[in-house]
Amino acid sequence: MSELPCLVGVGVDSDEIETIAARWGFRTVADVESSDVVLIAKPDRLQLERLLTKHPPYALMETPSPTKLFGKRLRQAIARKGLFLSLSTCAAFHMEIASLICSCLCQRIPLCQQKCFDVETALGEALSNAMVHGNLDVASALRNNPADFGLYCDLVNQRLATPLYANRRIEMLATWSAKGLEIEVRDEGRGFDISNVSTLPHIEAKCGRGFSLIRELTRSVTLVNHGRGLKMSFEP
């Protein structure tokens, strides 16, 4: 890019913004409408909804922002005028993030009603798996067994109140072209060894039944980063 990407903070100390800009090669601006990247302190649903109606920014990230966020996926979102979102699990869990993201995508690219529904459903499954089974490390077997459902809910709430789990990040990168829409979801959970995955039943055992639904709704789906990431491709 010929110009430095623009950075702005919402509820973030100006000195912190200047430090981040200087370290990572951004230019600070005063308003969201002129920014490529927005750093947000303690985001809520209404705030994200307002920000996602604007285009740009191309990236929205909750602070404090780990060093690794200022890398390949963020730069790809800026270069391709896509959308990169990074939130703590605690912040993302109660926001219905999939519907917010899908509403944003429908404003930025042409998606028919059915395609919008497919994208939101697949993205919702991917985000839910990443948050609950990845970052909160709660097994899907507890949810699938009616006798254990109470334990499942208690464990999810307990983990959401525990910083070790609640502060783990959920990342989403969406890019699009005439060839279609690509969405990647990543978590910071333990992941699993995908090198020996050779048949769908094995994948389902690791990812739960949601993987089958995602596969039905997408052109292709790929597990990456040792099971900590999911790449989905949708037809244009």
Describe the protein.
This protein has 236 residues and is of the alpha/beta class. The chain has a domain of 81 residues: Rossmann fold (3-Layer(aba) Sandwich), CATH 3.40.50. It has 11 helices and 9 strands. A 9-stranded mixed beta sheet has the order 2-1-3-4-5-6-7-9-8, with helices on both faces. Helix 2 packs parallel to helix 5.
Strand content: 15-25%
The helix count comes to 11
Structural class: alpha/beta
Order of strands, main sheet, comes to: 2-1-3-4-5-6-7-9-8
Counting DSSP E segments of at least 2 residues, the number of strands comes to: 9
Largest sheet: 9 strands, mixed
Shape: globular
Second rung of CATH, namely the architecture of the domain at 1-81: 3-Layer(aba) Sandwich
Q: In CATH terms, what is the fold-level topology of the domain at 1-81?
A: Rossmann fold
- Uncertain spans, ≥5 residues at pLDDT below 50? 196-207
Rg from C-alpha positions?
Answer: 18 Å
User: What is the CATH first-level class name of the domain at 1-81?
Assistant: Alpha Beta
The arrangement of helices and strands along the chain is EHEEHEHEHHHHHHEEHHEE
Supply the key terms:
about 45% helix; globular; Rossmann fold; nine-stranded mixed β-sheet; single chain; about 240 residues; alpha/beta
